[in-house]
Design brief:
Jelly Rolls; alpha+beta; Immunoglobulin-like; 6-stranded antiparallel sheet; 5 domains; 678 residues
Length: 678
């Protein structure tokens, strides 16, 4: 009897809480619905070698290199040109239709070639073929397209079934051959794109029952295919419409078996019960017909802030849809002198957005999760001090940040950056993590603690003591090339500074043009800037420098040596021109700013020294070749006790040193000949 009052209390509390629960959760009435596609038109691109070629519905698989099969001699028997296979076709029905096979060709060193060719299609267990008509068997010199129209009967293809195309040729005869006549069949590149226009089942699009959180509604589509992520990464577009309005926000991606689940958040519900129409459209290639489907769902939402605005998946989200996430690398590099060596300090800020940022946030919220199936990268984090209440809370708590930083520092930094983010640590930071004298990781959530699609910044602070004068790598292309890029493009902006007694000697990038390097020198230190915009994973570059504390390279000692050399050189030039005209020498002082320009833009000491030596040499040559000063000559002539006579041309007084008549001598001013008769 004593337990009955407690039972009544529990029932009362439950009745009070139930409206609150409904206000946050909401309801949706519907079933998962397959909306597409029994079969669809698609261009299958021929790829690979002639003996073991393949086919792909994605033009992104085309390369820059064309594959060719060459027939250089007349052929009387049947010869196989090439064989291409499309494995693991999605099971379904292949309708009766006409498939068009288009093979690019080129005829050289012959007026034409007559060829009887056959294209055979094997779909499942059935084979269909077409042979060149007599009117189309003559291929003119140059490039063209050989086409076949293959009638395909209605058939079915089982799971993991294949489609095979075989091209054979016979009775190949060249007309008016000259030199090495040949017929080449071409495929596999954008310039030589040979295709099959087929109608086959590609995948299933399934709209799942919506999930409701307060006023947020999560609509999902599952793409089931044997291509997995390629359907997203290589297709042209995927969009969902609710009531005719496209959902513009980035969706959340998760894997479901061999398929991919794509989930959007809809925040346009009116509240209460309403029926909405959901449309999904997938376009494989530019210009191709979109594959689409639609259905209706009845949902009930409430005016509540129960959701975060972003779907929180129970499974680990995918890191990329194929388009990649934005990435920005900024930071500072500081060079200082330490006990006869140089000390390099770096702060590298890696700002990550898009799907990769969501994956990082979701992973930190699952540190130590033993229930959810995680990838090896996330599974490698221990629970540490993170409790069950803090884990999977949809919010990143302070303890999760602390645990993340601690485990990154202790053992997981290289593995997480390499496998998780696709970075080569040594190329990003210049050294392996174990080679640094000091290393520290920090995290900036950018004022957002929820597990949502919001940028996150990883901060790496490193210190390394280096031997002076050893050339090192400051930065190199650090993005690992991946079939489905994790990063859409990335930017780099690093600024470096040295003290007055240290230098980034010989800082340069190779090859130039991809990343720019700006290097300048001031008395109190050097400035170094590394900039790059819209870089992709295929870009290759390397930034090198020689950190040193050598006086001949350091800004202040080098400047003092330049000033001293120029000063002594100019003083010697003034000494050479004691009795000569100095006007031209003073004009040549404009060469000093040129030397200052060379010094400021951090040219190497030999180049700076060469510029100083050249300027001093010019000064000395000018001093030696300058004419004598008239003012000094006049003063010397006035001081003489011998008779003087002014020059008729320049009026310069000239001493008459001999009583002989007639007397000829050169004017000391203008060097014209003066003749004294009497």
């Amino acid at each position: 009897m004593t337990a009955r009052p407690f039972l009544f209390v529990l029932i009362f509390i439950a009745s009070m809480m139930s409206p609150m629960v409904d206000s946050f959760v909401g309801t949706a009435t519907a079933e998962d619905t397959v909306v597409c596609c029994d079969s669809a038109e698609v261009d299958l691109h021929l790829l690979g070698s002639a003996s073991s070629g393949s086919m792909s519905p994605f033009s992104q698989d085309l390369t820059d290199t064309t594959t060719a099969a060459t027939i250089a001699n007349a052929v009387s028997s049947e010869e196989t040109v090439g064989k291409w296979v499309l494995p693991n076709v999605w099971p379904g029905t292949v309708p009766a239709n006409s498939w068009k096979v288009s093979i690019q060709y080129e005829v050289t060193d012959a007026a034409s070639v007559q060829v009887n060719a056959t294209a055979s299609l094997k779909i499942g267990s059935q084979t269909f073929s077409d042979t060149t008509d007599p009117g189309s068997s003559f291929l003119a010199q140059g490039s063209g397209t050989l086409t076949f129209d293959i009638d395909v009967d209605a058939t079915s293809i089982s799971d993991k079934g294949a489609i095979e195309l075989t091209l054979t040729a016979r009775s190949v005869v060249f007309t008016l051959p000259t030199g090495d006549a040949k017929l080449e069949f071409l495929w596999g590149s954008e310039d030589s794109d040979s295709t099959i226009e087929a109608v086959i089942p590609l995948f299933d699009l399934t709209l799942l029952e919506p999930e409701v959180e307060g006023s947020d509604v999560y609509f999902s589509v599952v793409i089931d295919s044997n291509w997995g992520m390629d359907v997203l990464s290589k297709s042209e577009s995927l969009e969902m419409k609710i009531g005719g309005t496209v959902l513009a926000d980035d969706p959340i991606l998760t894997s479901v078996g061999d398929g991919v689940r794509v989930t959007w958040t809809w925040q346009g519900a009116k509240g209460g019960i309403e029926t909405v129409t959901v449309d999904i459209r997938l376009t494989i290639e530019v210009g191709s017909e979109a594959l689409s489907g639609s259905t209706t769902f009845e949902i009930e939402t409430f005016d509540s802030s129960g959701g975060t605005g972003t779907y929180y998946p129970p499974e680990e989200p995918l890191k990329t849809s194929g388009d990649g996430s934005p990435l920005s690398v900024t930071g500072t590099i500081t060079l200082d002198s330490l006990d006869g060596n140089v000390q390099l300090k770096r702060e590298t800020r890696i700002e990550i957005g898009g799907e990769m940022a969501f994956w990082m946030r979701w992973g930190m919220d699952h540190i130590g999760d033993e229930v959810t199936t995680l990838s090896p990268v996330l599974k490698s984090f221990d629970a540490g001090s993170v409790s069950d209440d803090e884990r999977v809370s949809r919010t990143i708590e302070d303890i999760e940040v602390v645990e993340f930083k601690k485990q990154m520092l202790s053992r997981l930094s290289t593995y997480y950056l390499f496998e998780g983010l696709g970075f080569d640590v040594e190329e990003l930071l210049g050294y392996k993590t174990k080679d640094f004298d000091a290393l520290y990781f920090d995290l900036d959530l950018n004022n957002e603690r929820d597990v949502v699609n919001h940028p996150i910044t990883l901060i790496i602070t490193s210190t390394k003591v280096l031997d002076s004068g050893i050339r090192i790598r400051l930065l190199e292309e650090f993005i690992r090339v991946q079939p489905s890029p994790l990063w859409s493009s990335y930017s780099i902006s690093l600024s470096g500074s040295s003290t007055a007694m240290t230098s980034f000697a010989g800082a340069a990038v190779n090859p130039s043009g991809i990343v720019s390097v700006s290097h300048s020198r001031l008395p109190w230190g050097e400035s170094l800037t590394i900039e790059g915009e819209n870089l992709n994973q295929d870009d290759e570059f390397r930034v090198m420098a020689t950190p040193t504390n050598s006086p001949t390279h350091s800004p202040l000692p080098l400047l003092l040596m330049v000033i001293l050399a120029l000063g002594l050189g100019f003083m010697m030039a003034l000494r050479f021109t004691r009795n000569r005209v100095r006007k031209v020498l003073y004009i040549e002082l404009v060469l000093v700013p040129l030397v200052a320009f060379i010094h400021f833009f951090a040219y190497t000491p030999p180049f700076v020294g060469g510029a100083v030596g050249t300027v001093v040499l010019i000064w000395w040559l000018t001093a030696i070749t300058s004419p004598r000063s008239r003012t000094n000559l006049v003063e010397d002539a006035i001081s003489l006790t011998t008779p003087v006579i002014p020059c008729p041309a320049c009026s310069t007084p000239n001493p008459v040193m001999s009583p002989e008549r007639p007397l000829r001598f050169a004017c000391v001013g203008c060097e014209r000949v003066i003749k004294i008769v009497a």
